[in-house]
Amino acid sequence: MSEYRRFFSYIYAYERNQKTSNAGFAKIEMKGPMTTIELHLRGIVLSAPAACLYLFVRNGDTILGFPLGDVPFSSGNADRRFTLNQPELGESSYHVSDVAGILLSVGDNICFVSQWDEAPINWENFHIYQPEPEKEPVSEPPSTDHPLEEKVIQSAELAQPQRKSAVFADVPQPDTQDSWEETWQQLISSMPLLHPFSNENIRCVRVELKDLRLLPPSNWHLCNNSFLLHAFFTYRHLILGEIPSAKDHKWFIGIPGVRYRQEHVLASIFGFSDFLPDKGSSDTDTPFGYWVVPMTEAD
Fold first, then answer.
1. Final residue belonging to a domain, choices 157, 175, 203
2. Taking Cα atoms as reference points, which of 36, 45, 43 lies closest to residue 6?
3. Which residue in 15, 34, 64, 132 is deepest, having the highest Cβ count within 10 Å?
4. What pairing do the DSSP bridges indicate for beta strands 126-128 and 109-115?
């Protein structure tokens, strides 16, 4: 059976070779000879419209970079997937298993780094990998400034959510005179009422992505939330919930998932810092439940 590894690694911004703040994350999957690297970066300010992505390996104190290709940014964001179809890094003797992390650079300036090991790095020792010179001259020597062979790597921009008008085209718009509380009453009267949490006073309904159109427009931006979209297409549902109290009622949007430390950090990056465990989950350390965010009731 082929070895399979799947892990997340945070991407940090670097200024003058010093790590500063979190800029996003990478998801890495290794299965047999194929490796997929998926990048998600947010709120990036660059002096250029794109950065070059490198894999890097260690050779003693030297850090060798293998360029994979450009990562373009749109409005400061980037979502891109790279797929390597063989374990070797180009024509070198290095393999994907030797990779210690990835970095993005603009020119000679290293801007973002995701490190997969704990060893210290001196970026002054970073060099782009160059193959050994051919013993016999060749008519067209390979360029050392270009990405790995096209047959080895494929790059693609990740699919982006459709515009709201397309996503919700088949959903009738609620009466704009209705308050959210009136819309909520209509929902709980027409959908099965759920009590998934230990607090039985919390009432929920199970919805789909298109149903977010029923919310006040101030919540529609969640249709572009990568964390929410990933969870929806994994579990095929979301929830809308109500937490009643003596003074007022609070509503929330919940997306399904499993709570563990790394996922908690990712959820927080995308605005879902709170987690409610499902009362039926038997795993107390990494329970299944819902990442939740308060709903904005204003239009």
1. 157
2. 36
3. 64
4. unpaired
- 115-149 burial, b at 16+ Cβ within 10 Å, e below that, comes to beeeeebeeeebeebeeeeeeeeeeeeeeeeebbe
Structure tokens at 52: 């070059």
Q: CB-based contacts of 240: which residues, under 8 Å, 6+ apart?
A: 184, 187, 204, 205, 207, 211, 215, 251, 252, 253, 254, 295
**Rounded CA gap, 226 and 139, in Å?**
47
Digitized pLDDT (tens) for each residue of the chain, 299 residues in all: 457 788 878 888 888 778 888 788 888 888 888 999 999 888 888 888 999 999 999 999 899 999 999 999 988 888 899 999 988 998 899 999 999 999 999 888 888 999 988 788 888 899 999 877 665 555 555 444 556 654 456 677 665 544 333 333 333 344 444 688 888 888 888 889 999 999 999 999 999 888 888 888 888 888 878 888 888 878 889 999 998 876 777 899 999 999 988 788 888 888 998 999 999 888 888 899 999 999 887 76
Strand partners, 244: 249
Element (H, E) at 233: helix 226-235
pTM of the complete model: 0.53
Largest CA distance in the chain: 84
Q: Determine, yes or no, domain membership for 299.
A: no
Residues 243 and 288 in one domain: yes
Do 262 and 210 lie in one domain? The reply is: yes
